[in-house]
Specification:
CATH architecture of the largest domain: 3-Layer(aba) Sandwich
Helix content: 25-40%
Largest sheet: 6 strands, parallel
Structural class: alpha/beta
CATH class of the largest domain: Alpha Beta
Distance between the termini: 5 Å
Strand content: 15-25%
Radius of gyration: 27 Å
Number of domains: 4
Oligomer: single chain
């Protein structure tokens, strides 16, 4: 478990914190009692920090990694119904998974408090899309609170939970990548006593309140609209909302947009020419803020993501028939609707609104530099880590497919194995959302011409399998869809930083719990052909894949292969703790024929090509996996020492260290 001692630092200190850790601290200061989440960048560290706090505060608050975001919101809502202060944490696409209970939570409200954290990812640094989840707030009538940069991440989180408790309604806490992963000094406030963090509530039976049958849901709808009008009028006094200056030009800095806007005004020397509105409550945009802003003749809206505040402002403008120039991301577009905000973009936009000269560095018109003396760095495409079990498994998969002369369609999924889209493996033909490898694979398999050489192979990770692969697998069993489901079981949620899941046997706080194996789960769902392969043993993997693919093609039924092998990063961590030293491999140049299989077809980043075409291993990158020995047809790879039985076991079984 990662260490975050700063999250439980004593009050009155100024501590350097990651933005996500500051969010966790804010929830703790507000007395959070129940936390449920599914890991996803850029949100993961919030729950890791809260799990660390729970472990050091006697299991208070309760913290869990749920199997997916829908379950996390349902669990948090259930706790909030009993009176607990609850938080559900996820990245932006996770709210898509949780949309059903999320919309329902807006109708029924809560007895305690409920905050849904949506960590948005502008420019998709680690995501499949770039959605702005403030639209969810408008759609579901759930207020949205944004920190004004990482500096106010803690206070915004504390206030979100407090306001949810005040109104007994769910609130969204919307963060973005820069807020989540920026380190800032944070002033620590007082923490409640550990006993106050225990989720002890009472359920009051009241079907009219807690059940959404049409009879009651219609009344809930009316109450929700009444609440929306009330909160729109009251959020003007939200502590993070403020007005700075008294110039003629209104600049609305929404969330982190406030930081960019303030800095841009300073750079342009326009502090006396603008009125800067710092807006933390972006949905709904408070009525009195709208009234004040519309008293200006020129308005610039600076917000990260979509023009959510800009649209609300323009609707209000249209209602009163005001002739006002509103600039932002729509209409008079000065800021792009894609990617992250940047200081240059905001400086350029504000300069145009104010009619002042744009600095050359922000104009985009800088003269081309003389790059004749600039060192050209080689391209660095993303690549699987040295020793990754996925590499040897993909290699075996390609060999199995070629041996059977099949024409596969690889239905891919979300995880480290998404890198299988790249050469030389190219085993990801579609990547849609978590679990879609099986769900979409079903549709592809049913729509392909029924040729014996065509087969759909769904490639999914163990954490993703438990997240949303179970329903897809049940579906192909029920419909007897002929396809292979290949589950890559590396005993962790590797892509987001090695969090546990139901197949690991560890809780969020590192306690030993029941372990659900992928293979037993698949059999329980009715899969008749389930095979388990050793990811690090290419021959074993190829043999099992060939057997399963033959079954799919001949029997026209689904099959599952579970390829087991620990994430090498976790294995190395386990080995260090156990004082087990992995071997380092080298190349016997007398046997190397420069065939290039190891650094082209296998593509291990620890294996380098020399000028004469022969291979060389970088000892600093070699992880001791020994996969190269199996790949080389000329037996040119040798270990510096024979791998110990302890290391071979760790490679295959290592789990995250609590």
């Amino acid at each position: 478990m990662p260490r975050y001692p700063e999250v439980i630092a004593e009050k009155g200190r100024r501590v350097l914190m990651l933005g996500n850790v500051a969010v966790a601290r804010g929830f703790l200061e507000a007395g959070v009692q129940f936390v449920a989440a599914y890991p996803g960048t850029p949100s993961t560290e919030i729950v890791e920090a809260l799990a660390y706090a729970s472990k050091h505060l006697g299991g208070r608050p309760y913290v869990e990694w749920s199997v997916n975001e829908k379950v996390a919101v349902e669990a948090a809502l259930g706790a909030a119904i009993t009176g607990a202060k609850a938080v559900a944490v996820m990245k932006h696409v996770g709210l898509n998974v949780a949309a059903d209970p999320f919309f329902s939570s807006a109708y029924i409200g809560v007895k305690g408090a409920l905050v849904i954290v949506s960590a948005d990812d502008p420019w998709m640094w680690s995501s499949q899309n770039e959605q702005d989840n403030r639209w969810y707030g408008l759609h579901a009538y759930v207020p949205v609170i944004e920190p004004l940069g990482a500096q106010s991440a803690k206070d915004a989180a504390r206030l979100a939970l407090e306001y949810s408790a005040k109104y007994r309604r769910p609130f969204i806490y919307r963060s973005t990548t820069r807020i989540a992963h920026t380190r800032v000094p944070v002033e620590t406030g007082p923490l409640p006593s550990p006993d106050e963090l225990i989720p002890i509530g009472e359920f009051e039976r009241n079907p009219a309140k807690w059940t959404l049958v049409p009879q009651y849901a219609r009344q809930h709808r009316l109450e929700l609209l009444e609440f929306w009008d009330k909160v729109r009028n009251e959020l003007d006094t939200f502590p993070l909302n403020r007005v700075e200056g008294s110039g003629s030009i209104a600049v609305i800095g929404v969330g982190i947009g406030y930081r960019y806007a303030r800095e841009a005004a300073k750079i342009l020397g326009l502090e006396d020419d603008i009125t800067l509105y710092a807006v933390s409550t972006s949905v709904p945009l408070p009525s009195r803020i709208i009234d004040k802003v519309l008293s200006h003749e020129k308005i610039l809206v600076v917000e990260e993501g979509d023009p959510v505040v800009e649209y609300q402002l323009k609707i209000a403008q249209a209602e009163i028939g005001a002739r006002i120039e509103v600039y932002g991301k729509n209409g008079r577009q000065l800021l792009p609707r894609y990617g992250e905000l940047g200081l240059e973009k905001v400086v350029n936009a504000l300069a145009k609104v104010a009619g002042t000269k744009t600095p050359e560095w922000a104009s985009g018109n800088l003269p081309k530099q003389d790059n004749s003396r600039t060192l050209e760095l080689p391209p660095r495409p993303p690549v699987l880590c040295p020793g990754c079990p996925y590499r040897s498994l993909f290699y075996a998969l390609k060999r199995a497919v070629n041996k059977l002369r099949l024409k596969p369609v690889y239905s891919g999924d979300i995880g480290c194995y998404s890198l299988g889209i790249l050469p030389p493996f190219e085993v990801q033909d579609t990547i849609i959302d978590m679990g879609a490898s099986i769900g979409a694979g079903n549709g592809i398999a049913r729509s392909l011409s029924q040729s014996q050489d065509k087969v759909v192979i769904a490639v999914i990770g163990d954490s993703t399998f438990f997240h949303s692969g179970l329903s897809g697998l049940a579906n192909i069993v029920y419909n007897q869809t002929p396809m292979l489901v290949l589950v890559l079981d590396n005993h962790t949620t590797a892509m987001t930083g090695h969090q546990p899941h139901p197949g690991v046997g560890l809780s969020a706080s590192g306690e030993e719990v029941a372990m659900l194996t992928v293979e037993d789960t698949a059999r329980g769902l009715g899969v008749e052909k389930v095979l388990v392969a050793d990811s690090f043993d290419i021959s074993d993997s190829q043999e099992k894949l060939v057997e399963a693919l033959r079954y799919v093609v001949e029997k026209r039924k689904p099959a599952v292969v579970v390829a087991k092998g620990a994430c090498m990063l976790v294995a190395l961590q386990n080995a260090r703790r156990a004082r087990v030293k992995p071997p380092v491999y080298y190349v016997d140049e007398s046997k190397c024929t420069a065939c290039g299989i190891c650094y082209t077809a296998f593509n291990c980043p620890a294996i380098l090509r020399q000028e004469n075409g022969k291979a060389r291993i970088d000892p600093a990158l070699c992880t001791g996996c020994g996969e190269c020995v199996q790949v080389c047809p000329f037996n040119a790879f040798k270990p510096s020492k024979e791998p110990s039985p302890e290391w071979l076991k760790i490679m295959r079984t290592a789990r995250p260290i609590p």
